[in-house]
Amino acid sequence: MPNEPNEVVIGSAPLSRADVVAVARAGAGVTVGTVARKNVATARAHVDALADATTPSYGVSTGFGALAVRSIPPERRADLQRSLIRSHAAGAGPAVETEVVRALMLLRLRTLTTGHTGVRTSTVDTLAALINARITPVVPEYGSLGCSGDLAPLSAVALALMGEGEVVTADGAVRPAADALRDAGITPVTLAEKEGLALTNGTDGMLGMLALATRDLAGLLDVADVTAAMSVEAQLGTDRVFADDLQALRPHPGQAVSARRMREALADSEIVASHRGPDCTRVQDAYSLRCAPQVHGAARDTLAHAEAVADRELVSAVDNPVVLADGRVESNGNFHGAPLGYVLDFLAIPVADVASIAERRTDRMLDVARSHGLPAFLADDPGVDSGHMIAQYTQAGIVSELKRLATPSSVDSIPSSAMQEDHVSMGWSAARKLRRGIDGLRTVLAVELLTAARALDLRAPLRPAPVTGAVRDLLRTRVGGPGPDRHLAPEIAAAEELIASGAVQNCVEEA
């Protein structure tokens, strides 16, 4: 697994997806660099000039959304910003995960330091202080339409900056924001002109979840290649179809990677070698075995496209209005979440399909008519024991759910704000269902890992390949080998944890 930085410096170089993962998951701190601080100060000077001007400027001296036609006098502008945050922090439902909120906070901080938002340096410093103190605002799941940014989620963060609402502290306790900030020595912010918009008008939640999802899915596709190889081996399949010259006839880069990984995982397998001779009458394997590189590879190529979109977003300044280098403050549509919503939905398709083909491979190992000599359901005493029969039910239930989650959110739009915001992306919803989909895929692969490892043990005395054998042996440190039925749910959970922790990937790389 990649090493994460312990600290992320904002403004010294473009933020990477690895930086997002480091702050969101590993608790890395942030520092606002000198160049970033200069950018903030320059943009703020432009906003201050507009605040003193007689010409109305959206978000500086006017109301918001459909209320932009109203000019706000200087003495009411602090009230305007405070009211914006309080009214927009209108989310509902369960709190989203801490890692999502930390990613969102980091990405909003990055945009604030581009010099295109007009916030004050003190506001930037307060947001950075919350991240470093591991104070995470409570953000409800529902409230973003993925246009005008992730308004309600970002408003919940801005509310905490003001010392209002609830937060989760580093020890996991839910506390009033005012108390947590006081104990951490952080002074709440009194928002000035433009700052309410700058804190809320971004696609940071969608982007944060995309960055986390690309990391997770990249790891799961690596695992899928290995569990597929184990299944091929356990079912006496051939590795000849993964040959480089055959794969080169269809030169998709992801397919080449998956085929190579499966080929290397099966190298020097006694089980594969045992049926290579002229006595073997099988001409070709079932699609779920033979076509694994094509399916996994297409998923890899889809992932590569999503990563490219995420990387473009990581160098974008998403706000409305934006402060330009010449001092103009201009409205724009860059807050629309379509670029993110599309790829978040797109990734849900290969997540469902990779899980689907894994479930089919698992089912073949359990069917005595198709498993080429393995006992029914891999049971110790079929009839008395049921083996992995119901583990496949669990896979099937999850795969069915993943198909539902593959239905795109981004094709749906509900007008809002008195028809001013009449087309929205629903990208936040796409991100939320993708996260659930990735969790489901992990469980499906855990069941395939359990089943394939048991099948390999049942092929003894023939030994599996060094790579697949190493993965089997890793699993055996947590889960026992074949035998009478035992409580299977903890074994599925143990296999899932080995995948989630990166232990399976590390084992493959070492082998």
TrEMBL record:
| E.C. code | 4.3.1.3
- Please write the reaction equations for the catalytic activity of this protein: L-histidine = trans-urocanate + NH4(+)
Does Lyase appear among the keywords? yes
GO MF annotations, alphabetized: histidine ammonia-lyase activity
Q: In which pathway does it act?
A: Amino-acid degradation; L-histidine degradation into L-glutamate; N-formimidoyl-L-glutamate from L-histidine: step 1/3
UniProt-annotated location(s):
Cytoplasm
Query: Which Pfam families does the record cross-reference, listed alphabetically?
Result: Lyase_aromatic
Q: Which UniProt keywords apply?
A: Histidine metabolism, Lyase
Q: Which domain of life is it from?
A: Bacteria
Primary enzyme class: lyase
Q: What is its main location?
A: cytoplasm
Return the InterPro entries for the record. Aromatic_Lyase (IPR001106), Fumarase/histidase_N (IPR024083), HutH (IPR005921), L-Aspartase-like (IPR008948), Phe/His_NH3-lyase_AS (IPR022313)
- Presence of the UniProt keyword Lyase in the record: yes
* Sequence similarity: Belongs to the PAL/histidase family.
Instruction: Write down the NCBIfam families for this protein, in alphabetical order.
Output: hutH, PRK09367.1
Q: What is this protein called?
A: Histidine ammonia-lyase
Source organism:
Prauserella salsuginis
Q: Which gene encodes it?
A: hutH
